[in-house]
């Protein structure tokens, strides 16, 4: 077997561009609208808790058991001041495991008030120590918690992307179901 060089601590993004989200047909969903010029993205309303569904399989390069850090890339669409509050509801299972009850975490961030400014809002880390296998899946609902008193930005919020930072420990897996040793 070929020997692999193991990297020191390294991080990678598991990326979900707004243009690829599946909007939830059952709950309130964000509009697709113009962000800048002719470029469109999802716009989350200031008066309703709109959401999108995000389904993720952890990469084979994920250092199994290490925490992950989800975050939102967004931008002010106006010069209005205020805070946007994002929520992330999730449940996790290893392959062959059972998805349990959901947990929800929140992050709040003030608008820079600069139209088109790229902002990143980081949720708290999610402990993944209970998940020990390849192909671990995370089912998520990302939403603007607009009905919460902490969400004070009075305008639509353009979502650019949702990402999950995860720690890598190698360059993948040796087979579809085993890590390099």
CATH hierarchy: architecture: Sandwich
- Our count of domains comes out at 1
The end-to-end span amounts to 11 Å
Shape: globular
Helix content: under 10%
Tell me the strand percentage band.
over 45%
CATH superfamily: Galactose-binding domain-like
Question: Can you write the helix and strand succession as a string?
Answer: EEEEEEEEEEEEE
**What composes the largest sheet?**
6 strands, antiparallel
Question: Which topology does CATH recognise?
Answer: Jelly Rolls
* Parts with pLDDT < 50 across at least 5 consecutive residues: none
Query: Could you tell me the number of beta strands?
Result: 13
Radius of gyration, taken over Cα atoms and rounded to an integer in Å: 18 Å
Question: So how many helices?
Answer: 0
Oligomeric state of shown chains: single chain
CATH domain class name: Mainly Beta
**Mean pLDDT metric:** 86
What structural category characterises the helix and strand content? mainly beta
Describe this structure in words.
- The chain has 181 residues and is mainly beta.
- It has a single domain, classed as Jelly Rolls (Sandwich).
- Helix content is 0%, strand content 46%.
- It contains no helices and 13 strands.
- Strands 1, 3, 4, 6, 9 and 11 form a six-stranded antiparallel sheet that branches. Strands 2-5-10-7-8 form a five-stranded antiparallel sheet, with no helix packed on it. It has a two-stranded antiparallel ribbon with strand order 12-13.
- The chain is globular.
